[in-house]
Design a protein that fits this description.
2 domains, 5 helices, about 0% strand
Length: about 160
């Protein structure tokens, strides 16, 4: 696959996962407001974010596994290990995204700056996530051992 095709697929899958995340959030919010109007806004928003994140994460994992990394490994053990690593890499890159968004807001205190910081953080985060996933998630079992070794080395 050419680098341009890879980049376009990766961007399209990121957009699809984002859209699925937001659609799931809207569904939870709408359903919650309609079916359980007594539930507090904070609880409902937390549930919506949790469900949306789960939907987007699973969709992106399935698409990346098959169409980005051409990973054909099957079985519950392989999926559990890979999905756990995939989720961990997502936590690292989410910190990058949130850091850029928060920094831009803290420095310039405007919605436009916050959104530009978010876009920059997402772009950098997705680039880092691709590299982390390629190195540690969608490779033979040796890559998982390398990741564990890197963690042990980091602890001193």
């Amino acid at each position: 696959m050419s680098p341009a095709t890879l980049a376009l697929r990766y961007a399209a899958f990121a957009a699809a996962a984002t859209a699925a995340n937001l659609a799931a959030q809207r569904l939870v919010l709408w359903t919650g407001h309609t079916a359980m109007p007594a539930i507090g806004e904070g609880v409902l928003l937390g549930a919506a974010i949790l469900v949306g994140t789960g939907v987007g994460l699973v969709l992106k994992y399935v698409l990346d596994k098959r169409w980005i990394f051409a990973d054909r490994e099957t079985g519950i053990t392989a999926h559990t290990r890979k999905f756990g690593l995939y989720t961990a890499m997502g936590l690292v890159t989410t910190a990058i995204f949130w850091g850029f968004e928060t920094a831009a807001w803290s420095i310039w205190r405007t919605p436009s700056a916050r959104e530009l910081g978010a876009v920059a953080g997402l772009a950098i985060g997705y680039a880092v996530k691709y590299r982390l996933d390629r190195r540690f998630v969608f490779r033979p079992a040796a890559s998982a051992a390398a990741f564990k070794g890197a963690l042990r080395a980091g602890r001193g």
